[in-house]
Design a protein that fits this description.
7 helices; alpha/beta; 6-stranded mixed beta sheet; 17 strands
Length: 288
Amino acid sequence: MVQYELKKIGSFDDFAEQVSFFARTAAGYRADFLLFPELLTTQLFTYLSFENSSAASKLAELTPQYIELFARLSRETKTYIIAGSQLCEEDGKLYNISYFFDRSGRSNKQYKLHITPHEKDVWNVQSGDFVQVFDTDRGKIAVLICYDIEFPELSRIAANKGARIIFVPSNTDQRCGYLRVRYCAQARCIENQVYVAVSGCTGNMPMGAGGGEIHYAQSAIFTPSDLPFAQEAVAAQCAENVETMIIQDVDLDLLEHNREKGAVCPWHDRRPDLYQLHYRDEKGPQTM
């Protein structure tokens, strides 16, 4: 997991160099997954020329280069990469999309489903429609972008579809915002007995760089809260507000054992006779 510093750069190549460092470092540690933060591409605002009203569209124009970069890095390093997120235009609408690249460089995507007031008011970002779950050779995973982890229904859908790790690319400006994401991520671990990894941006951006000038992060990997796991249910975490990365093994078999034999078993002790969750995905209406 990368805690990424947004700093002034002079070109897309500078961005690629910073990103590539982390991809190659992760490969050197034989990491299976590499997580970048939400909207790390806003760093590109520091060299782009634009009017504030066109900032998001200007960034979206660089989506093909962004995809090409991360596809190449995942292919070269044989690593699954959750490439943070990027503002993308589709059919005349703007979306906040997290691209997931497999070891061969093929991509899939998760749209942000709940849009913050800032994204609506400043960029007119639209919401996606459903929760994706991705198959990997290390099991099923899901990606929920920042604000989405604050809605328990989404993680429940992801867990019901088989996800055992939920990756959360995040971007928050102040500690209070970061703590909302952190506390909700920890709650989702307990409710669903899964791992949740949260990666954030740090650093300051020039004023007028399309919004999001300051950043607060303490990226971490969270676990269920029970005796087999790390004390305080934190497998690993970064120091606050410094660019760094953390590398941590997680045991998926331990999750299954905890679901069956834990001190409490929230996943199996649900009461579908009292409540049901209705949702829509690519196969149509679903109930759980």
